[in-house]
């Protein structure tokens, strides 16, 4: 069992570190592969390359978990939408077709995602047994932001469009079912843990947070509990509602975003393992500043189960050498 799983199962308090987006653009060896593979979704579905990219940060750094190289938008792709990535605008999906969405059956969905399960199998074989392989999905709300194009260019919710939506609850229900299926199959292929990314949870109007964030996350977490799959939830941007989220959803672990004060988190988030929090922008500063800010998290959580990670993904401009120094600092710190 890896340190990550020991902590998630409350077996012991030990050190564990991995970073969101650790397999990505800040690594020259990733950029080299990416430059030869223009279609990003196709790259995610190339099992050999996906496995190779997953292991790139493990080769470089003293991390104890790998996260499978894929994307949250692979699920909308498998449900019939085309997904394209534009350099500055981010991902764009083609017009959502409700009928096509409802018509997609499980066999078709799983056939499209088979290469991901193969990549997990390949990676699990190559990865040290003492390290975890993390799988992931996007939470339903965050996926709907992309599937239904609900975000304006300034990263605010397009309220007019959101209010005019029909069948939202039905779409949500089908998504939850298929996300659970994807989680189960990633676990069957050898993934040890799942992280559920609700990156845009902060855009949900407060009155609707329960309906579109808490309840869907809870349904997925309950499914995982039934299948004994440890869960890490990341309801980014919901501020003090992290506390209500924790009480309602009860995941094994909660990833803090950078706006959450670690001291507040320690006081208010009980019966849950805490992960992350450190602002990825800090990694663009001097070594001194990085270690000072990292220390705040390490110190605050030194006597409770804590997984060292960030408050969002590593930025493409990050110097890999700084990532290495940060990991070494965490490993050697005995305060
Ligand atoms: O290293 C890892 O964490 C594993 C792989 C991974 C990727 N995306 C690869 C990727 C994971 C876990 C994700 C999650 C993801 N994808 C999220 C949730 C986490 C978060 O960052 O909020 C979201 C919202 C997406 C959707 C997405 N995919 C966006 C908005 C973009 C474009 C801009 C960006 O953030 O990178 C992507 C593309 C993407 N996904 C890249 C990578 C390595 C960059 C592809 C490229 O242009 O080369």
Please, could you describe this protein's structure?
With 335 residues, this protein is α/β, with parallel strands linked by helices. It has a single domain (3-333), classed as TIM Barrel (Alpha-Beta Barrel), CATH 3.20.20.210. Helices cover 48% and strands 12% of the residues. The protein is built from 15 helices and 9 strands. The chain has helices at residues 3-8, 28-35, 40-44, 47-60, 74-78, 98-103, 106-126, 140-147, 159-163, 168-189, 209-226, 242-249, 262-268, 287-300, 320-332; strands at 65-67, 83-86, 90-93, 132-138, 193-198, 231-235, 253-256, 273-276, 306-307. A 7-stranded parallel sheet has the order 1-4-5-6-7-8-9. It has a two-stranded antiparallel sheet with strand order 2-3. α13 (262-268) links the parallel β7 and β8. α4 packs parallel to α7 and α10 runs parallel beside α11. The longest helix has 22 residues, at 168-189. The chain is globular. The mean pLDDT is 96. It binds coproporphyrinogen III. Coproporphyrinogen III is lined by residues 20-25, 34, 40, 67, 69-73, 85, 90-91, 136, 197, 199, 313.
């Amino acid at each position: 069992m890896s340190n990550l799983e020991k902590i998630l199962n409350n077996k012991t308090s030990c050190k564990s570190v991995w970073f969101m987006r650790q397999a990505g653009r800040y690594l020259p060896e990733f950029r080299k592969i990416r430059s030869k593979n223009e279609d990003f979704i196709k790259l995610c579905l190339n099992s050999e390359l996906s496995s190779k990219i997953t292991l790139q940060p493990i080769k470089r750094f003293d991390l104890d978990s790998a996260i499978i190289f894929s994307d949250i938008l692979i699920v909308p792709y498998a449900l019939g939408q085309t997904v394209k990535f534009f350099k500055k605008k981010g991902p764009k999906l083609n017009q959502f077709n409700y009928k096509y969405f409802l018509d997609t059956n499980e066999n078709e969905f799983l056939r499209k995602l088979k290469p991901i399960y193969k990549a997990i199998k390949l990676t699990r074989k190559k990865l040290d047994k003492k390290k975890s392989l993390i799988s992931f999905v996007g939470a339903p709300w965050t996926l709907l932001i992309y599937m239904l194009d609900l975000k304006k260019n300034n990263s605010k919710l397009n309220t007019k469009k959101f209010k005019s939506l029909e069948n939202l609850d039905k779409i949500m229900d089908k998504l939850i079912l298929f996300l659970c299926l994807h989680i189960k199959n990633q676990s069957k292929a050898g993934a040890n843990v799942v992280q559920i990314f609700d990156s845009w949870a902060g855009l949900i109007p407060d009155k609707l947070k329960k309906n579109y964030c808490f309840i869907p996350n809870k349904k997925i977490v309950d499914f995982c509990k039934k299948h004994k799959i440890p869960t890490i939830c990341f309801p980014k941007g919901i501020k003090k509602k992290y506390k209500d989220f924790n009480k309602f959803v009860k995941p094994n672990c909660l990833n803090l975003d950078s706006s959450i004060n670690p001291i507040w988190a320690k006081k208010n988030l009980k019966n849950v393992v805490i992960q992350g929090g450190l602002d990825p922008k800090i990694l663009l500063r001097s070594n001194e500043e990085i270690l000072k800010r990292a220390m705040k998290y390490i110190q605050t959580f030194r006597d409770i189960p804590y997984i060292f990670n960030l408050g969002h993904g590593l930025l493409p401009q990050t110097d890999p050498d700084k990532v290495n120094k940060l990991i070494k600092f965490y490993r050697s710190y005995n305060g």
